[in-house]
Structure formats: structure tokens, C-alpha cells
């Protein structure tokens, strides 16, 4: 796929899965990451609502309420130091294993991310002649009192970029390890 085709696929996916209704006091953004690992491998990490610490570097522990991973499942996260929070409570709002889409909403915690929800979608793509994955993550969140929309978006985008960079590193390492075993 050339650059124009890639942008078209990204744009179509964003229009289809990443539209958020914004209130006046909210901000939203969409981030894109191209990962040099097959979709099934990347999805195996992303869909694990019960184990986000496998690729999210700021999560130290996750406890899921209930035994089943389904819409409405709640997870309690312990966050690593360095963030202006120690806990977050999230609910699984959407999980589609066929379309490779996961949606979460934050419902509690000791942070300032109120009314936060995000959607992450994955699509198979070819990167430099090999199988890869297009990852798109979007969010919407309230702008905390005392902050601007730009400051809020910058902060959340930085967190998501860190998570996506880590997702790429973990996925690409696992892919390299699986190729070594072949």
C-alpha cells in the first residue's frame, strides 16, 4: 500500500469506528500506529482487558471483577508512580473479536480523567512487504477545571502514544521470537 492508500484506509476506519460526540467541555483525538507484527498477535494483547499491563507500561496491576470477559466487566488498575494518580476503575464497553475493536470507559479512580472513553481498532496491513497491523486509538474526555483543551489532549495523547509504542515493541518482539522458533 502506498502512502495515499494507507491514509485512505486510516480515514475510513476512523470515520467508521472512532466518532465521538463531544460536549463543550471535552476534547478528543485519534492516534495511529503501524506495527510490524500480524493482527492476530497484536489483537491477542489488546483484547486482554484483564491484562493491560502486558503492554501498558503505567499499569502495575489489574484486578477484574467476575470471571468472564464480557461487555460490562469492570477492572481495577493500580498505576505506577510517575503519574498523577494511583488507581483507575474501567468498564469494558465494547469487544468485537471479528472486527478487532475494543472500547473502554473510565468510571472511577484518583485522577482527573472524568468521562473518559476510548476505542481501539486494529486492521491488517502490509508494511515493507510483510504482514503488519494498523492500530487506531481515539478518546474523548472532560477538560479538568484549570486546564485547557490543548493541555488535556496533549497529556492523554502522550499516555496513549507511550502505550502504542510499548504495544509495538512487545508485539514486534513476540513476532521476532516466534520467527526464531520456526
List the SSEs and their pairings.
Elements: H1 3-17, E1 26-35, H2 39-46, E2 59-65, E3 74-79, E4 87-96, E5 101-109, E6 117-127, E7 130-142, H3 149-181
Antiparallel strand pairs: 1-7, 2-3, 3-4, 4-5, 5-6, 6-7
Helix pairs in contact: 2-3
Explained architecture:
- It is a single chain.
- It contains three helices and seven strands; from the N terminus they run H-E-H-E-E-E-E-E-E-H.
- By secondary structure, the chain is α+β, with helices and mostly antiparallel strands.
- A hairpin with a 2-residue loop joins strand 6 (117-127) and strand 7 (130-142).
- Helix 2 (39-46) crosses helix 3 (149-181).
- The relative contact order is 0.22.
What's the oligomerization state? single chain
Low-confidence stretches: none
Task: State Rg.
Answer: 16 Å
Q: What is the distance, rounded to the nearest whole angstrom, between the alpha carbons of the first and last residues?
A: 27 Å
Number of strands: 7
Number of helices: 3
Q: Which features would summarize this protein structure in a list?
A:
nucleus, Polyketide_cyclase/dehydratase, 182 residues, globular, 36% strand, 3 helices, alpha+beta, seven-stranded antiparallel sheet, signaling receptor activity
In short:
This protein has 182 residues and is α+β, with helices and mostly antiparallel strands.
